[in-house]
User: What shape does this take?
Amino acid sequence: MSKYSFHIAAFVLLVVSVIMLCAAGRSAFIPAAGGTSVTGVVKFKGTAARPTRIDMSADPYCAKAHPSGATTEDVLTDANGDLENVVVFISDGLGTTTFPIPDEPAVMEQKGCQYKPHVLAMRAGQKLKVVNSDSTTHNIHPMPNNNREWNVSQPPGTPLEQVFAREEIAISVKCNIHPWMRSYIAVLKNPYFAITDKSGGFEIKDLSPGTYTLQAWHEKLGSKMQKITVGEGAPQSVEFVFQ
Amino acid sequence: MIKGRSVALALLVTWLISSSLFSFAQESKIADLSGNAKAGKALYRRYCITCHGVHGDGAGENAPHVDPKPRDFTKATFKCRSTPSGDLPTDSDLYDTISRGIYNSAMPSWRPLTRQQRADLVAYIKTFSPRFHEEPPVASIVIPPEPPTSAESVKRGEALFQSLNCWSCHGKEGRANGPSALTLTDSKGYPILPFDFTKAPHFKCGETPRDVFKDLSTGLDGTPMPSFADSMKPDQIWDVVHYIQTFAESDRSFFHRAKSEGKLQ
Assistant: This one.
């Protein structure tokens, strides 16, 4: 045993303890209203697979809910290649700052045997309220990698609230009773996120000046990242292109 | 320098105390038994490692040849629990699964091992997931006494079997042939079949009516079988248990037993 080994062990312990103390002492940070917005658009280049017809005949209630037929929602683009349902969020640059968790629950609705919204973004620790507006029983079965897995039956009108404790982009959710039903829940540790609308647009509000990594995640097309520098005042505009 | 040493010493003591707390979490308690993870490890390496793997991740050398796949203990997601969906199983739940084995799988009954050995295995299995020392232990659900089986109860159970879409997977005749049956996968993406109720009472998580009540209430985590704890009152769960028993073809089943005992007309 070398005479330095005690010092080395002591140093390692000290470093570990300092890291743990720092982690414990993080302060809550309330995002400053009136910061800079990051806006932008997410595009898809190439030929997107057209939405296909879903066969809901296994449950007559579901089939009846869509007289003109329901279609898949996994890659939704318009004629200009604007991509819907992309989660855009700050994945780096906020350090160890923690943010207060909203009291309002995030809401996922089951309607016409499909999920509304198809892609939901919420905060780790925030309540998730699942609503069944259908007249048939669903089961809600998230399959997380970084959170605990649960699977709960929900007949019409039954309330359901759950929480995902840890960040995860994104948790796939299914209904085993109706195998075509699929949605994704992005669980984030900061409030700086948005989901692209029908025209591929997004806006992340109230960012303080600084350098951040902005990430865009799509269920089928994966992730893209870019560094952005946010200054005072003028909104930042960003474009992501998936292929 | 002396100050530095005393700080380091204090940190060392703190670290030793906290690590002894973690090792406490590696024990198991099943009624009068206390399991020891170290003893469990030796047993695991002899009896369990070929399927469940050296890291407890279900990737042992036999795993590719086994269907359904061996449990991945690192996820701490277990089918057979007395606790609500998403929660950790109790030590007794794990002990019962080891003792009972799982029908229609490669998991045999380990009753040839002593009770102490099975408790030791539970202690060791818990070391594969940090959840067992991060999360407080969860209490088992309360199972009220079973009301007597009756034609009315079976009828109510049948109505629930319809309205709760049990038939979507298990089939209208309980033969695991519902419209969604062939689409099902477990949470690792492997195909999985719903339970065929004509095979009752060979349920995966125990044969007694109380076991079936527990399955309906807690769900089988990691599989498509959800929890019905919030969708049915305990009496209704008993009604479904009674209805499910009518599918059984084996004369060992409760239904046939109840019939032969004159409890059911």
Chain B touches chain A at residues 4-5, 7-8, 11-12, 14-15, 75, 77, 85-87, 131, 163-165, 168-169, 179-180, 183-184, 187, 219, 221-231 (CB under 8 Å). Residues 19-24 of chain B have pLDDT under 50 and may be disordered. The beta strands of chain B are 28-30, 33-35. Chain B has eleven helices and two strands.
